[in-house]
Amino acid sequence: MAKQTFLQGTIILIMAGLITRFLGFINRLVVARLMGEEGVGLYMMALPTLFLVITLTQLGLPVAISKRVAEAEARNDQQKIKKILTVSFAITAVTCILFTTGMILFAPFIASTLLTDGRTIYPLIAISPIVPIIAISSILKGYFQGKQNMKPQSFGLVIEQIVRIACVAFFVNLLLPYGVEFAAAGAMFSVILGEFASLAFMFYLFKRNKSIKVRNRFFHYLKTSKSTLRELFSIALPSTGSRLIGSISNFLEPILVAQSLAIAGVATTIATKQYGELTGFVLPLLFLPTFITNSLSIALVPNISEAEANKNKKLIHYRIHQSIRISFASGAIATIVLTFFAEPILTYMYGTDNASRFLVFMAPFFILLYIQAPLQSALQGLDLAKPAMWNSLVGAFFKFIVLFFLASNPDFGIMGVAIAMSVGVVLVTLMHLASLKKAIHFYIPFKDLSKMALLLLMTGVVGHLLKGIYDGIGQQNIIAFICLLILLTFIYLLFLLILRFVTKEELKQIPLIQRFV
User: Fold this and answer.
1) Which end of the chain, C or N, has fewer beta carbons within 10 A?
2) Are residues 289 and 434 located together in one domain of the fold?
3) Is residue 1 part of a domain?
């Protein structure tokens, strides 16, 4: 599989992300309708613990591998690449054993004491075998990313979702008669099978296309790779600090939410249900455009690393501007749709619009989330992972302060959690921008900011008019709803072209429309 350009690699990842998001929503619909809000709540409360353990296991190696492999590839240094892989596999082997064992041993304490719901022990234990699978998979992703070949992980993501969907309904239905906690464990086990299928596919491609043999003189290369270890950790440790802060934040969040709502007088079962609505129904919709921003972020790290190594400051600034422009364009339409059509979207998808107030409130703030990931990747690609880590820490700190004071107040309750999440997103994004401004004098020109505001305003006016038309129909009509969304999207694309959010040069890199540009 050949190397791709920045935009080509991004487009491949975006297409895979689009497919996996669609399949992922099918999976969430199946899970939500089979297990209900309480089952989704148990499922979502267990996930942050998994993410925390995965972050500890990886130690930030995927980003470091991507950057160092890209540098070695530019020099055609195959021995260096072998040392990078050798060290990475050795590190993850040790961390996998430690953290998988720890996750199983501490599951009862986490479930009963921290999460205040003993039933979460079943999904926690069920998900523990996924840790080594994802750890090895991340090394292979970092390797392919460093070679600027985004196809293996893109195909792997699609395979993972297909296998997960094929298994989730079976295992949830099989275990639901034994209790909602066992159904949640069955959903977790489906995740494991999907990740394993993805790993098997990428490992096959790695074995077929590799130009080096990792097992050949493995321990010799391991002993002579001290400098490689230092080079990896110089990126990995600060990067893992940012991820660790995010993972710890996600781990502590349901605990703090449960404790704060308990202070506010909310019963445990109600708190679990409300948290399930917020994190299981609302957040997936708000995070929907991130398949584009994450794709940009993945492709951005090796690209900026290469530009920095070549002292090409102009290209660095261009890539960051380009990423922000495309990320904002992908998020603005989602913000308008979710703000004006929250109730019908939630009703058609989940059969209830109870969480619509969260969605309407959070959507305008989360537009900054869509440019946050590329900004963080730019910092990491420039060896500025430490500022990114501190930004994440400050954002998490203030989020928890706001969460505790508001969620423990009966007048706010679960809405206090939504406010706190929005505060964290806005603060971290603005601090990332400030860090880039300080380091490389990067800023978003006033002209671009004006175009962003104009795009939101124009799309908002059209969205408001179409919402009035939908409300005038007088009853829920999914066909009319879909037609209105298609019309809004078409008008939005025209606005993007008029305001030049997408350039002619970028359109030329999209194979399907190359011939028409």
Assistant:
1) C
2) yes
3) no
Question: Is residue 422, in this structure, part of any structural domain at all?
Answer: yes
One-letter identity of residue 38: E
For CA atoms 431, 436, 437, 438, the dihedral sign is: positive
The H or E element containing residue 446 is: helix 446-473
**Which amino acid is it at 177?**
P
Residue 452 sits in the same domain as residue 319: no
Tokens of 36: 């209900």
Q: List C-alpha distances in Å: 137 to 132, 194, 406.
A: 8, 12, 40
Give yes or no: residues 380 and 361 share one domain: yes
Residues 6+ apart with CB under 8 A from 231: 64, 68
419 and 429 Cβ atoms separated by less than 8 Å: no
CA distance 19 to 283: 19
Q: Distance between CA 200 and CA 220 in Å, rounded?
A: 27
Q: Is residue 11 part of a domain?
A: yes
Cα–Cα dist 78/229, whole Å: 16
* Structure confidence at residue 218 as a pLDDT band (50, 70, 90): low
Q: Let me know: does 250 contact 53? Beta carbons within 8 Å.
A: no
In whole angstroms, give the CA distance from residue 186 to residue 190: 6
Q: Model's pTM, two decimal places?
A: 0.75
Least confident of 71-75, 112-116, 470-474, 504-508: 504-508
Q: 370 and 464: one domain?
A: no
User: Which of 412, 444, 476 represents a domain boundary (last residue)?
Assistant: 444
Let me know if residue 267 belongs to a domain: yes
Q: What is the Cα Rg of the chain in Å?
A: 23
Report residue 127 as tokens.
Answer: 């998900």
d(CA 330, CA 292): 7
Mark out the alpha helices in 366-445 (DSSP H runs): 369-381, 385-407, 414-440
Place of tokens 């990740």: 195
Of the candidates 299, 301, 84, the one whose C-alpha atom is nearest the C-alpha of residue 212 is 84
Spell out the residues 6+ positions from residue 354 whose beta carbon is closer than 8 angstroms to its own.
Answer: 277, 346
Whether residues 223 and 248 share a domain: the answer is yes
- Structural domains counted in the chain: 2
Q: Residue 463: pLDDT band by 50, 70, 90 thresholds?
A: very high
Proportion of the chain above pLDDT 70, given as a percent: 92
Q: Is 25 in contact with 169 (CB distance < 8 Å)?
A: no
Asked if 13 contacts 148 with a C-beta cutoff of 8 angstroms, the reply is: no
Tokens of 359: 């969605």
Burial class (CB in 10 A: 0-12, 13-18, 19+), 221: buried
Q: Please write the tens of the pLDDT for every residue from 358-404.
A: 899 999 999 999 999 899 888 888 888 788 888 989 998 999 999 88
What range does the domain containing 467 cover? Answer: 445-517
83 contacts 219 by C-beta, under 8 angstroms: no
